[in-house]
Protein 1
Amino acid sequence: MAQEILKDVFFIGYVDWEVRNFHGYSTNRGSSYNAYLVKSGDAYTLIDTVKRPYFEYYLANIKSVCDLKDIKYFIVNHVEPDHSGSFPLIEKYLPNAEIVASTKGVEILEQHYHQEVEAGRFKQIRAVKEGDTLDVGNGKIFTFVPIPMIHWSDSMVSFMTDENGKNILFSNDAFGQHLATSRIWDDENDLSVIMQEAEKYYANILLHLSGLIAKTIPKVAPLPIEIMCPSHGVCWRSHIPDILEKYVKWSSGEIEENSVLIVYDTMWNSTEKIAKALYKEIKSRGILVKRFRLTHADYSDVITEAMKAKAILIGSPTLNLGMFPSVAEYVCYQKGLKPINKIGIAFGSYGWSKGAVKEIVEQMEATKIEVIETIEIKFVPRPEDLNFKEVVDKLMAKMEGS
Ligand code: FEO
C-alpha cells in the first residue's frame, strides 16, 4: 500500500528490514529502496524503482494509487540495480510513459537492459542535461541536475516545484542512509541514529568521491529545498541544513576532533600487545582513541571511524611474508575509499622474516596517508619494547601541527 507523504506525492518503495549486507557493506539497521509517484491532475510521474526481488510490492503500491496507463513520465535518477532493478519489469506495464534520465543514464540503462533495447522499447526516452525542465502538468515542474559520481556517472537529482510553490528534491543516493524505519520523516525518528547511518553511508559509499562531491554540493545547496526525498532511509524536512553541512564537512575531510584509530589483527597476541600499549599511551595524553581488532570488528564500521580520525594506526603480524588476511582485506577496502588528510603508523610483530609492515606502508602510501613511523617487533615483545612514549610524542606533534 502506497503512503501519501505529501499532498500528491506517494512513497511506493520497499522498506527492507532483512538486509544485513549491501554489496559488502554491513547494514545492521536494514535499508529501504525509496521510489515515489507524483500526481499532477489526471497524470502521474514515477520516480525510480526498487530492487528486483521487491517488484511485486512496488507494483501493488503503484496500483493502489493509479492506473498504470496514466503514468506519463518515468524518471530514472540512477541506474544502479537497487534503484533500477525493477525497471525492465515495470517498464512493460507503462504504455504511455516517457522515460527520463540523464544523458549518461540513458547510455547506462541501455548497457544494463539489453533485451528491452532489442525489443525496441526504448523509443520514448528523453536524455536530460543540467537545468532542463519538464512540465508534468497541474503546476508541477521538474528541473534536472546531474550529480555525476554521487554515486555513479549517471546519477542525477530531480527538483520539483508544485502548484503551491513547494520545493522537493528527489536526491536518489545523495543524503541517504541504510536504515529501515516505518516512519518516513527525519523528525519522526531518532536524529542521532539517522546521522550515524548517513555518516556510515557516506564513508562506505561516497568517501572516495569527495573531491567531486565538494564541487557538486554548491550546485544543489542553493536550490530552495524544503523537502528532500532520497532513495534510502528517511526523507528530510526538518534537518536539511544539518545534512548539507555534514556533506560539506565529510567531503572536505574536515574532522570534528583530533582523534586516533587503531585497527589491527593478531595471531599469537604480539601485535595485540603493541596495539594495546599504543592505545594506553595515546589515551594518557587525553586524546580520543578507538581500538578495533579485525577478527571481531566489521570493516564497514571501521572505515566510518577512519573517516573521522586524524591518525590511523594499522597493525598486522607477518604471515607468509605478508599481512594477516583480515588486515589485507581492510587496507584494500580503505585504499578504495581513500580517507582524506590522514597521518598513519604501521606496526606489527614478525618471526624469522618481516613483510606485513612493509605492505601496510605501501597500502597507506597508495591511499595518500602520510606514514610518520613504523614499529616492528620480533616474536614476543618484552615490556621495554612496549614503551611508545617517543612514538606517541611524534604522533601528537604531527597531529597538532597539521
Ligand atoms: Fe543506492 Fe548507487 O545506489
Protein 2
Amino acid sequence: MPQRPYVIDEMISAKAIAARVEALAKDITNAYRETDKLIVVGLLRGSFVFIADLVREIDLPVEVDFLEASSYGNAMESSREVRILKDLRGEIAGKDVLVVEDIVDTGFTLHHVVNLLKSRGPKRLEVCALLDKPSRREVKIKATWTGFEIPDEFVVGYGIDFAQRNRNLPHIGKVRFTDETAEA
Ligand code: IMP
C-alpha cells in the first residue's frame, strides 16, 4: 500500500527530552540506591534511543538487557494480542529490574510484559515510560515514572517509528497527514 503523504510537527524538543531524561534518571538512581546491580530492560525497538540516554544518566551499577514484544499489528492500530519475539538473555529472579518502554498506549504490551517478568520472581520491578497516552488506555496499568503525558496523537522520533521510519529524529513530533480534506 503506498504511504500517505505526511509531515511531522514538533511536539517535544530534543532539549526538553534531555532535561526530562536527566530528572527521571535522578529519581531512578534515588529509588534503587541500595541496589548492587540494576537490570535495565529495554523494550525493542522503540525504547532504544531513550534507554541509551537514560542509562548514561543513572548513577548505579547497571546491566542492560532487551526484550521484544509485538504490539502494533499494522502501522497505526494497536493489537490486543501480544507476542514475545525476543526474550531476555539473562535471569531476573531475585534481581532489581527497571523496564523501559517508549509509549504506553492501550497498555496491552506493558501489561503483558510486566506480568511475564513478575512471574520470574524479580526482587523489585518498576517501569519507566517516556510517553503516556492516558486517554487511550484499555488495560489498567501505569508506569512508575513517566516522561511526558501526551494527547491522543500518533508520534514519531527519538526511537519511535511510523512504519519503521522516523526513528532517527532527535525530537518527538506528531504525524499530520497532508492529504486530509479540511472539515467544514
Ligand atoms: P500498547 O500495547 O497499545 O500500549 O502499545 C504500545 C506500543 O505501541 C508502544 O511501545 C509503541 O511501540 C506503539 N505505539 C503506541 N503509540 C504509538 C505512536 O503514537 N507512535 C508510534 N508507536 C506507537
Protein 3
Amino acid sequence: MRLSCIIASNFLILLVSMLKSSSQEQVNIKRSDFPPDFLFGAATSAYQVEGAVLEDGRSLSNWDIFSHIEGNIADGSNAYIADDHYHRYLEDIEIMHSLGLTAYRFSISWSRILPRGRDGPVNKVAVQFYRNITYNLLTKGIHPFVTLFHFEYPQELEDRFGGWLSPLMQEEYLHFAEICFTYFGDQVKYWITINEPNLFSEMAYERANYPPARCSPPFGDCVSGNSDVEPLIVVHNMLLAHAKAAKLYRERFKSKVDGVLSIAVCAFMYVPMTDDEKGKAAADRALAFNVAWTLDPLVFGDYPPEMRSIHGPELPNFSAEERELLRDSIDFIGINHYGTLYAKDCTHSVCVCNISSCVQGSDRAIRGFTYTGGERDGVPIGERTGMARFFVVPRGMEQIVQYVKDRYNNKTMIITENGYASPGNEENDFVHDDKRIQYHQSYLAYLAQAMRKGADVQGYFVWSLIDNFEWASGYGPKFGLYHIDRPTLNRIPKNSACWYGDFLSNCSLVDASNIQSQYNEKENIVMCV
Ligand code: BGC
C-alpha cells in the first residue's frame, strides 16, 4: 500500500465516522468489509474485446453479420478489431494483476472454438489461445471465471436451423460445452454456462436490437418474428441446454478442480411506481417475469407461478424428466445488476411508453402486463448514465440481493456484473471518471449491507475491465476501468482503475479526488498517482 494512501485513508476514515454519512452513498467501504476469500474481479466478453474475427480459423458469428448491416449499430462501428484483446491478452492480464484482481470473468468465443458447430472439427489454435489465458491468469493468482455463451455463436447455426429458436441448439450447445469442459476443465473452477438468457431473448426476439433481430408489433416492426412467443421458446431452449451441460459437467468434469457452475441473470431491481397494492403487485410481477423467469426453473424445476398464472399455452411446459434435470442445476446464482426501474400495473390501466427508458409492449402477457421505466412524472429514479435504462440507484443492489436471497433460500450468489456507463460525449476528459468511482463505492456499500444482513454473496465483478464494443450501441457508452485509445489501442487507466487497485489493497478512500490517473511525461505512460 502506498504511504500517501495510508495517510489519506486514515484521515478520511476519521472524517467519515465524524460526519456519519448523511447519505448512505458516501459510506467508507473497504476491502476488509468483505471476507478475505471474497472474489473481486472484472469482466469482459469475447465478442466485445477480442477482435481478430477473421484470424486463426474463426468463423463468422451472428454479430459479425448483424453489425455489417447498415443502421444496426448506433455509431456504425463493428468489433472486427474491438480492443484487440486477442493479441494483447498478456498486457490485459498484467493490468489485472497490477490492480490486484483475484478473478477475471471472460467468455470463450463459440465461433473460434467450433467454427462449424458440432459438424466440424475443434479449432486447436483457439483452444491454445484460451489455455494461454487461463494459464497466465493462474500464474498471477487470478481465478479464470469462464462464460460459455455470451451472445455470440457461429452464424452457420442460425442459417442452418434458426439458432436458439430450435431445440437443435441445445445439442449444439452441449457439444460446445463438452469441448470447453474437456480442454479447460482442469484449469477453470468457475463457469457461467449462459449469460443473461432473459436479456438476450428480449433484445434478440422481442425488440430486435440484437441478432437475429426478430420482432412483431407493438414491440417493433420486423420482417419476421413473434415478440409475444419467441422469447419464451428461446429461454426454454437455453434453460434445457444449460441443464444438460450442468449434468454433463457434474458427472464427468466437476471433480477435476471441484468446479461450480451457474448462469448469469440480468437482474434489474423493480420498485412500485404507485404507492398502492397494484403498484406493489406490478413490481413483484416485473421481478418474476424478468429475474425469476430463468432462476425458478434452475432452482425449483419450473417457471414462476406468477408467469404460469398469466401466460397461456405459449409458455412451454417441461416434462417430468426435464424438471428433474433442471432442479438444482446451478451451484450459485450469477447476478448482473446495474440499476433499478419503476414498475407500473398495466392490467387495469393504460400504459403509454414515450420515453427512452421504457419499452413498448407493457400491456402484453410477455411483459406480465407491467410497464417498466426509469422516470416518474418526469423525474428520474436515479442519476442517468450512458445507457437509457441504467439509472444509478445504489440501494437497488441491496434490494435485489435480498430478493434473490429470500426467493432462493439464500443460495450462494456472485455479482457477475456491475458497472457504470459514462455517456460517450462526456468522455473528452475520459480518465477523470469520478462518477464511476462513486457508483462502485456506493453499490459495494449496499452489497456489504446485504451481506451483513446474512446474504451469502461470494464475489463481485466490475463490468468492465476495459472500454469495449457495447453491442448495438457500438463504442458510445463506456464502462471500462481502462480507456482504450482507439488509434493506438493503448490501455489507459482511468481514475476508477486506480481507485479499484487502492480499494483492493485495502486502502479505502472516500474522496476519490485523492486518486488520479496522470500522464507521466518521463516514462510516456499514464499511471495512478
Ligand atoms: C451484458 C454485457 C453488456 C453490459 C452493459 C450486460 O447485460 O452482459 O455484455 O456490455 O450488460 O450493457
Protein 4
Amino acid sequence: MGEGNDIPLVGGKSFTAVAINCAAKAGEWIKTKLGNHTSLSIKYSAQDLVTEVDKGAEKMIRNLVGTHFPHHSFLGEEGVEPGPEASTKALQSVKDAEYLWIVDPIDGTTNFVHGFPYFSVSIALAHWGEVIVGVVYDPMRDELFVAEKGKGAYVRGRRMAVSGEQTLRDSLLATGFPADPNYAQPLNMKQLQAIAPQVRNVRSLGSAALHMAYVASGRLSGFWEIGLNSWDLAAGALLVKESGGAVTDLQGNEYHLGVRHVAASNSHLHGEFLQVLQQAEAGS
Ligand code: IPD
Ligand code: CA
Ligand code: CA
C-alpha cells in the first residue's frame, strides 16, 4: 500500500512500512526509558498521567511520518488537550482528512510509570475516516501486530485469527477500569459484576490497544471498555476485524473513529456479550 506517483515520497516507503518503522523505533526507545523517566505530570485527573517519554515518543513518530508523508494529517494523544470534550473536538476537526495518522505513543502509561511491563505503541492510518493500516507494538515482548484493510492481520509474521469460543461460559475477557467516578466507573463495575460469574475469568492489564491485539490473536475472547479515544482503538479495531472478530459500540453499531465505549470479540459470542453489557447498563 502506498501513495500515487504524483506525490513525492522520501525513500518511497509504503504506509504500512512507515507505521511499522515508527512503532518499532518509538517502542525500542520507550523500553530503554522504563524505570528512568524523569518527569511525571497529571493531565485531566489524578489517574491520567504523562511523562517526557510519552511526549518524546509522539514527537519521534510525528517527525518520521511527516518526513515520509508531509501532506498527511496527524492526531496524537499528546498533541490534544486532556479530557473527553477536547478529544472529541480534535477528532472532529481531522476525521475527514484524506489521510490521517492516529497515534498513541504509549498506551499503558500507568504501567510504564510503575515498571509493569505491559504497554504498547499504537499507530493507525485512516483514509477518508476509515482505518486502512493498524500497528500495535509491545516493546517488552518484541511483538508487532500489523493489519492492512482487506489483507488480514499478522503477529510475528504469522496470520492471526480470533479464538473459537462460542459462548461466554467458555470465554476469557478483558476490560479497562475507567477513572471517571461519575459515569464510566460505576457502569463498568455493574458490567463487571454481571459478566464475571458468566465467564471463565476477566483480566485488566492496562493497555486497551494490547487488549484489542490479544482479541485479534485469539488470546482473549473479548474486551470491553467505557470512555476510550480514537488513538486507543483505531489500530486495534482493524487488527480485530482483519482477524475475523467483531468490533462495535455497546449498542452493536459497527466501529468508527468516534466510538468511545467499545466491545470487541471473536464475533461468535458478540451477541451474548452485548446482551449482558446492555442489561447491566439498563439496570444501573
Ligand atoms: C489508557 C490505557 C488503559 C485504559 C485507559 C486508557 P493511556 O491509555 O489504554 O488500558 O484503561 O482507559 O486511557 O492513558 O495509557 O494512553
Ligand atoms: Ca491510550
Ligand atoms: Ca497514551
